[in-house]
Amino acid sequence: MVELKHIKVGEDKFKISDDEVARRELKITKIDEDVIQVQEEVHGIIAAIGGVSSVNIKKEELKEIIKIAKEEFGWTDLC
């Protein structure tokens, strides 16, 4: 079994209204030898439950995800 290691890739704050600021974190976790999980947590927004989920990834965050997958998780065949 793989030891779960959560690595924070990105963090943002953005204004929703005059008195509310949301916080966003993007994390990557190695689930198995060939599986990673990218998780986006957004705090401060009332969310509706639906059947679709998505993760917003910035270009710099994607570069960091690829770097982590190679260096931390040993995925040497990424290009």
Automatic annotation (TrEMBL):
Protein name: Uncharacterized protein
Taxonomic placement: Archaea, Methanobacteriati, Methanobacteriota, Thermococci, Thermococcales
